[in-house]
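quick one, two chains, predict together pls
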Amino acid sequence: MGRYVIRRLLQFIPTVLGTMFLLHYLTSLAIQFSGNPARALFGDRTPPPALLKAITERLGYDDPCLSQRGNPCLGLFADRLQNIFLTFPPDFGINLRQRPVTELVADALPFTLKLLVIAILFEAIVGIAAGVLAGLRSGSFVDYLVKISTVFVISVPIFVLGLVIREFVGVKFGNVLRGQDWIPDLISVGVFTPGFKPDYPFASLVIPGMVLGATSLAVTARLTRTSIMENIRADYVRTAKAKGLATKRVIGVHTLRNSLIPVITFLGVDIGAAMAGAVVTESIFNVPGIGRLVTLAARSGESSVVIGVVTMLVLVVLLANLLVDLLYAVLDPRIRYE
Amino acid sequence: MSDLTSAGTGVGGAPVAGDGPTPDAPASKERNASLWADARRQLLRDPTFVISFCYVLLVGSMAAVPKLWTSQDPRACSTDRSRVSPSWEHPFGFDVLGCDYYSHAIYGARPSMVIAVMATTGIVLFGGTLGLLAGYYGGWADTIISRVMDIVLSLPFLLGAIVFLTVIKKQNPWTLTLVLFLLAWPTISRITRGSVISSKDLDYVHAAKAVGARNSRLMFRHIMPNAIAPMLVYATIVLGSFVAAEATLTFLGVGLQPPTQSWGIMISQHQVYFLEDPWLLLFPCGLLVGTVLSFILMGDALRDALDPKFR
């Protein structure tokens, strides 16, 4: 176990460096091939050369290697690593208006975190419950219902689902609710809303969170279902039944414990996927979170913001994966990593 | 499926020299049919597979020869017909610019399908080869290839695609294909690597090695046929997710751009008209979801048919 942890930690370092280098090289190539990004500030006007030079210098785009096509700019990469890992607070770059990316992310983070919590809770609770119900009675109506509905949810692209839910539930159904006087505003205006409302910071994120969690919910349900179906026939479950334990205990303690190992792993890995999925959900429901920050920056061509935020997210994802792997080794002693 | 049948002769273990069961002498009559003949028989009896296969053929023919489906020109537009509802002659009505929506939908199948097919071919060839090399040689080759796979996999798919497309700044089917290819090859590599590792120590591989087979023959003749089934299943499912990914990226504004016809563009341009004219959104969404669903159902059916444990 100890050796495994050390090996996994050692593997973590080259992966982080490699990913960051990939992102760094992409930015450098973009600047080398499409020119000085500071020009984007001026639109189609031609800035005075002195002004352009000053701004370029201040934004840090004046390094000579940025004009040599194909040069990996290792010096800049070293600076970047130093800025991120060795300075406090870490520096992930600045946008074209010289606001640090860390500040932009700090403003956006609370919304995305709330969204993620709602999504993960929703998919864990509903997904596991549906999976257990389906797995215990395979071949029953519930089983078919879960099987068919999960296939549908998986194959609907998240943005189609989001749009349809926004229009049907947020606008049409919401309008009906808002017409009734006896329904509290928290529900009619807060929950069933077509977009994020600052007045209801939690309630108006419930539906976007559910949309974000929907695909993973389907995967969770299927994973739980197969896992339960495998374990329910295991010898130790039969033994537990034979010695007269209540069904509740046999299922809830003996079977679930083993069956949930792959599910927990999936949920851990899914945090990263959900962060990426937030890009779509947040732009549909107009949530001022990290995902919308990335989309807006991508549309306006501010690559420094995109790269800064994505670097940060990738670090989070890698850390989550590392923790999941370590957790997996703790949860399942049958697995030997040697 | 005849090519699959001949490719599958190695699966039974006996390296038959050339003549596998030919398609005109159906293997289904034999008692000991090969895995692929069994799978084909089971698939043809499976209604979900047959329906989704027909749907995919339908969309494929839209993409290949759109003229077969419509004689209208999707670019013949006139704004005085803007958002006219569906009629018998124009089954999907007109879009906001007054172009025939049905022909737009037919022509819109092409970019999605072309991108999905090209990217899938790319990841199968490239990812498959790397997975084979990593699994077969092990050691340093495996370490390096696995680390590169980890690096690429640590970029969440959508975020990675947004980054690539923002910095490339050219958004056409080629760059989209490239992005999907670059971000998706590690998964199929892992699948191949896993099944190569599990089958490279089998007895018949050692036997072939003992009689002096070269590395390339061992890899392609004896080990690779075991990996084809999982790769085929994954490739089918990934075709569906690439169709969805293209539409999603287009919807986010980093994919294909408006003068092109594509389902993603149809959806993103008409989302604001949903309440007045929902059909503007429902037709492209339906086509898109149907395509993705068909590919996923086909993949599921293939997995069940190719896995002997489920028989």
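Chain A touches chain B through 49 residues (CB under 8 Å).
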